[in-house]
Design a protein that fits this description.
The protein is mainly beta and 1098 residues long. The longest helix has 14 residues, at 45-58.
Length: 1098
């Protein structure tokens, strides 16, 4: 049997690099003897009949399926490692999950059936590295062959998202008509083209709390009661373990038989052990059959999710899917497009914006104000006695809508999954669009008439339908009225224990008016705005201003209706004032700087200010948790040291020490000791003769201690002088003593400075000495070659950073903080390290696929990089927090990237074999243009010399180095007949490049066009990126060099000055975007949402 893959290859990665069906993907623990994993192959009639019932119920419109055989896998009482080890620090006591996976195969098709417990998921996260991440469920084919010698990620399908709420929803929702049961058609091996989910997302009404379904009580199509089907595992008298390796599941072989294991039993629960499931602003109350949560006065919601009355609400999310326009045979793809919404709760006005909508689709989406309809319903203005959506069901629900356009019957399906409120008090929504919409010509405007919609309420299910008219006005002055029908179903999980909470009016009417829609072609944004009121189905008018919205209360206030038309304004929780003007109780405070945050102590956690009064707590490397409580990771449990070494765990780190008789850094131990710097120095001076080592007469030879370090005091026996030395053997000025005066009193220098976090460095790794150097990447290391003038001092080349098992592609140097930054395609990630000593510090670890080129703006304190799989160019602050996509169109294989911060220009190369090119733009991504597109092959490397204004590139296809002045366009050949260049950098008159064929760093005189020197590293492997590490930063300034250019977030230099941009992940209450000092917009979380207010926009 093949050995299981290492955890590092799949934990936290969905999809992983190998094929998988993941019922619950994470670090599950069976090592305590309680959790078990059973599996069996089963062709018994009873099992196949159960499988057929699940499949046929999930696909009611398809022909009935009769499976021929099945594989049943059951996980019983398994714990998540972080919970079992109490590593989160949140008091969770061995929470356990039980669940099943059934793979049922018919003659031509296979299905996966996933079954989750009726009592709910006890845990939804898993430990990954030093953090806690949501578990995953889904399917993946793994890596597939791409081109000739490479691979790339194959097809995959994710059932869950990055949020824990989606994991908990597995036990509460369905796609098969039965709660907690999920069915997917997955094809037949070896083909994996798509995954088709079950089609029945509605749940039947609950009829009881039975703990188990007997086979006789299960109807063929739609069994009632919310009961749970299980495929029973077989447990033999003696368990036969295939694996007993630590941290691997204990797998019990099951051949045949059946026992009645009650996997999915229902347990009544009380507030005593579930109070933490309620909102911070809610109280828990026990009932005869269980408990429920209730929002406190001043808040509204379902008790699990509570928000302050009157406070504006914000929503963020992503849009995915495919939409066809008119008769077009090809769809427009949505790939994580941003959706942002803002609701002024006290007047029911909702604003929605969706980004990156191409012009061929944008105008045709204008009629679909319904995309924001459920948001308007959730926070609609309430007529007395009526409740909006959030007041009834909170922020966790699923809305499935079908739009039918008349008369041509085009259909569009909209699915929106609301996942609750995140740590920034924003509601999170995921939207999927699939179908076809009628075409609205470019330049047309759309006006939507006011409409009403009847909502019908029942247990865990809300439905509504309406017919909506809209008018399309063409740019020739003509207009036509069109119609579409709208049907939607909202499913949610209510609390079944409080009868009073169910007393919601069975029908309510949502009235929508003042509908505004617009497609902004310049920014590729679609915007919707509408006013929403919920009230009586008879449409009775409520004259009180609290319901009409004409009350004049502050946007952070709640309107309180009184007798007749009277009302009062009351500031929302967290604000103070008279209700018509409300101010934050505490003005925006940087709690990180003030020390008033609740993050763990600085030795274990880091506080990151995110704007306003918000901040984020994150555990330091070597610790795990949610940032407010961080616990040490015992790295010694994961066999990090060499097999001939002993591991010692420390707080936030660990050390490795070779066992007696072995030498090395603990990561690598050998019976042959590697010479230290002192020993190498000593032995070189001693030389060797036929009588053994003999010093040259009259020459000083250093003395080394037992560990190979320089002794603190050194003496020259021939002249009688002694002096103190530092750890590098250099004399410390003022410590020398003359003959006969004895040794000076020297202070032991101690070992080399160790990294703040992480293991001790290897003995063959050295900090960067003073001067200018070349830095280049070679497999899992970064090395340096000192420069003397423009020449390479090859004998002094050393490794500056050792990163085993990494493939480093691009390197860049920050001359201000003496830090090296690099891209790694194995993680993938972007990291940095101090070249004077220290471990690797992660900068960006998410939303990357193949980061390659990297560049630093040392003036504006930003980093730029290319991603050749995501086909985009991004920028971020040097700590990675403020991140923005600059260019994501018309890129195929972007790799090399450089910036000229003094002049505000950015250059990059795209080695697309069909159409290679070199492009430029301002550093904010504007004014993009192609510099070179003819006579290119594989332009791998770029460099720019600010002194001569020469842009040079190395081309592995044409086997040339060429240069040009980007302004003048005077292209010329600098060097020909080179072999396979990859990275390139320049310093003065010279160009230095790495070559894959020669495994070397090669120096070229740019002016003479000749090769002048070659450096062959000791390790003969492929070399990647190269950069120049200057002793002093190059001269020059730009607008961003002082006070961040006056920008609130990102300051990016341009030829005309600078642009202030908001990051895609802006977390603050506001972010000002401007160009050349002119304010363009004030954005909410980078959404481009603009809400009209007195005195301007915000």
């Amino acid at each position: 049997m093949a050995q299981p893959s290492a955890e590092s290859t799949y934990l936290g990665k969905m999809p992983a690099g190998f094929g998988m069906i993941a019922a619950l993907h994470g670090d599950l623990d069976t090592g305590d003897g309680v959790g078990k994993v059973y599996y069996r192959q089963d062709a018994s009639p009873a099992t196949l009949r159960q499988a057929a019932e699940q499949i046929n119920r999930a696909f009611p419109e398809d022909d009935e399926v009769e499976p021929e055989h099945a594989v049943v896998v059951t996980w019983v009482d398994v714990a998540s490692r972080q919970h079992h080890d109490h590593s989160r620090g949140d008091g969770l006591e061995k929470q356990r999950n039980s669940f099943q996976l059934v793979i049922a195969s018919a003659e031509t098709t296979s299905y996966a059936i996933l079954l989750y417990p009726r009592k709910g998921m006890q845990f939804a996260s898993t430990a990954v590295g030093g953090s806690s991440q949501a578990m995953q469920a889904g399917f993946s084919k793994g890596l597939v062959k791409y081109l000739v010698f490479s691979t790339r990620q194959g097809p995959y399908y994710r059932i869950t998202t990055e949020r824990e709420t989606s994991v908990r929803a597995l036990a509460e929702e369905t796609n098969s008509g039965k709660r907690g049961v999920w069915v997917y058609e997955i094809g037949t091996s070896p083909y994996f083209t798509s995954v088709a989910p079950g089609e029945v997302t509605d749940l039947p009404p609950d009829t009881g709390l039975e703990s188990r379904v007997s086979e006789e009580a299960t109807s063929k199509r739609y069994p009632g009661g919310g009961q749970q089907v299980t495929y029973s595992p077989y447990e033999p008298e003696e368990e036969v373990y295939l694996h007993t390796v630590q941290y691997q599941p204990q797998v019990v072989v099951v051949d045949d038989g059946d026992i009645n294991v009650d996997v999915f039993s229902y347990n009544s629960e009380t507030c005593a052990n579930n109070r933490n499931k309620c909102s911070t602003f809610a109280d828990c109350k026990d009932y005869a059959s269980g408990y429920c949560c209730h929002c406190r006065p001043g808040y509204y919601g379902n008790g699990i999710q509570c928000v302050s009355e009157g406070k504006p609400q914000r929503m963020n999310g992503k849009v995915n899917g495919r939409v066809y326009v008119g008769n077009s045979p090809s769809p427009v793809e949505f790939n994580s497009n941003d959706l942002h919404s803002y609701v002024v709760a006290n007047d029911g006005r909702a604003y929605v914006a969706i980004s990156t909508i191409p012009a061929r689709l944008g105008p045709s989406l204008q009629p679909l104000s319904a995309l924001g309809g459920v948001i308007g319903w959730a926070f609609a203005l309430e007529q007395p006695g009526y409740k909006n959506g959030f007041s009834i069901i909170g922020g966790e629900f699923t809305c499935q809508a079908e739009v039918t356009f008349l008369p041509a019957q085009e259909k569009l399906t909209i699915k929106q999954v609301f996942s609750g409120i995140d740590e920034h008090d924003h509601l999170v929504v995921s939207t999927t669009l699939e179908g076809r919409v009628p075409e609205v010509l470019r330049g047309s405007t759309v006006q939507i008439e006011p409409y009403s919609e009847i909502y019908q309420y029942s247990s865990n299910l809300i439905t509504s339908s309406s017919t909506r008219d809209y008018t399309v006005s063409l740019d020739d002055g003509s207009a036509e009225t069109r119609t579409y029908q709208w049907r939607q179903t909202i499913t949610f999980q209510s609390c079944p224990n409080d009868e009073a909470a169910r007393a919601v009016l069975p029908t309510q009417m949502l009235s929508v008016d003042q509908v505004f829609v617009m497609y902004d072609s310049n920014n590729e944004l679609i915007r919707y705005a509408m006013s929403n009121k919920i009230g009586d189905v008879n449409g009775e008018k409520e004259e009180n201003s609290c319901f009409t919205g004409r009350h004049g209360c502050d946007t952070n206030a709640v309107c309180r209706p009184e007798q007749g038309t009277q009302f009062t304004c009351q500031c929302a929780a967290g604000f103070t004032g008279d209700g018509r003007s409300c101010y934050g109780v505490d003005r925006p405070v940087d709690h990180c700087a003030a020390g008033s945050h609740d993050c763990d102590i600085t030795e274990r956690a880091h506080c990151s200010y995110s704007g306003g009064s918000s901040y984020i707590c994150s555990c330091l490397p070597g610790f795990q948790g949610h940032g407010r409580v961080c616990q040490d990771i015992d790295e010694c449990q994961s066999a990090r040291c060499h097999q001939k070494a002993v591991c010692y765990n420390t707080q936030g780190s660990f050390t490795c020490q070779c066992r007696p008789g072995y030498y090395g850094d603990g990561f690598y131990c050998s019976s042959e000791r590697t010479k230290s710097q002192c020993e190498t120095h000593r032995d070189r001076l001693l030389g060797s003769t036929e009588y053994g080592p003999q010093p040259v007469p009259g020459q000083y030879v250093p003395t080394c201690d037992s560990q190979g370090a320089y002794e603190a005091s050194q003496c020259h026996g021939s002249i009688g002088h002694c002096w103190c030395v530092d750890r590098n053997g250099l004399e410390i000025p003022g410590t020398r003593t003359g003959p006969g005066r004895g040794r000076p009193l020297c202070i032991e220098q101690g070992p080399t400075v160790r990294p703040a976090v992480g293991p001790t460095p290897r003995p063959d790794v050295y900090p960067l000495p003073p001067g200018t150097h070349l830095l280049f990447a070679q497999s899992g290391r970064i090395e340096f070659v000192p420069l003397e003038g423009y020449n390479m001092k090859k004998t002094e080349a050393k490794t500056v950073l050792h990163l085993p098992e990494k493939v480093i592609i691009g390197v860049a140097y920050d001359c201000v903080e003496k830090m090296v930054y690099w891209t790694d395609i194995t993680s993938p990630s972007i990291s940095k390290a101090n070249l004077q000593g220290g471990g690797a510090i992660p900068v960006i670890r998410s939303d990357l696929e193949s980061p390659e080129g990297i560049a630093i703006d040392h003036l504006g304190r930003t980093l730029f990089w290319t991603d050749s799989m995501k086909d985009r160019i991004e920028v971020a602050s040097l700590d990675g927090t403020k991140r923005r996509v600059l260019i994501d169109t018309n890129l195929v294989n972007p790799r090399a990237i450089i910036v000229d911060p003094v002049n505000g220009n950015m250059y990059w190369a795209d080695w697309n074999r069909d159409a290679p090119k070199i492009e430029t733009s301002a550093m904010d991504g504007t004014n993009r243009r192609v510099l070179v597109k003819d006579d290119l092959g594989l332009p791998n490397g770029l460099t720019y010399d600010p002194q001569s204004s020469q842009l040079c590139w190395a081309d592995a296809g044409t086997h040339m180095i060429e240069c040009m002045n980007p302004v003048q366009g005077d292209r010329r050949k600098a060097m020909g007949a080179i072999q396979y260049p990859f990275g390139i950098t320049s310093h003065g008159k010279n160009i230095y490049y790495t070559d894959w064929r020669r495994d070397a760093v090669i120096m070229v005189d740019r002016q003479a066009g000749t090769e002048t020197d070659v450096f062959l590293p000791q390790k003969q492997t492929r070399l990647y990126g190269i950069t120049t590490a200057y002793a002093q930063c190059p001269s020059g300034k730009n607008y961003c060099a002082v006070n961040n250019g006056g920008c609130t977030h990102l300051c990016l230099a341009t030829p005309r000055g600078r642009s202030c941009l908001c990051p895609n992940n802006a977390l603050g209450v506001s972010c000002v975007e401007s160009e050349g000092g002119q304010v363009l917009r004030w954005r909410e979380r980078g959404a481009g949402i603009e809400v009209e207010r007195e005195g301007g926009r915000y």
